[in-house]
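Hey L., structure's done. Input below.
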Amino acid sequence: MSDSVRNLINAISAGSAIDTEESFNAAMAEKISIKLDAMRQDVATNMFATEELKEEVELNEVSKSEVDHHYDKWTNSEHAPNNSDAGDDNKVHKSALKYLRNTNEPKENHEKIAMHIANKFHGSGVD
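Output:
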């Protein structure tokens, strides 16, 4: 646990609204700074990526229409999840993989499509 979070907990425990606000702001600033540093490193690492790498990424992408197609088929299949499965990411993902094994979709695409299907089921959709 970082010092800023520890200070926030102590301020809350002490009941000091001013100290709590200052500690909260410090903790958020620290988390934002850490995330920005990670993003800067990622940009610096990928800034000069080769075209070959970019083409490979494009080949591994899955279209929204392809995900929509499989999602519709999956929700009407024997592998469709129950509404009670909505909070169980692993169960929904495995269900999508079971469905995909019975399709003509190349096996190397199963994991990525299953991930998108599960995300759509949970409401996050496809980018």
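The mean pLDDT is 82. The longest helix spans residues 17-46.

-- N.
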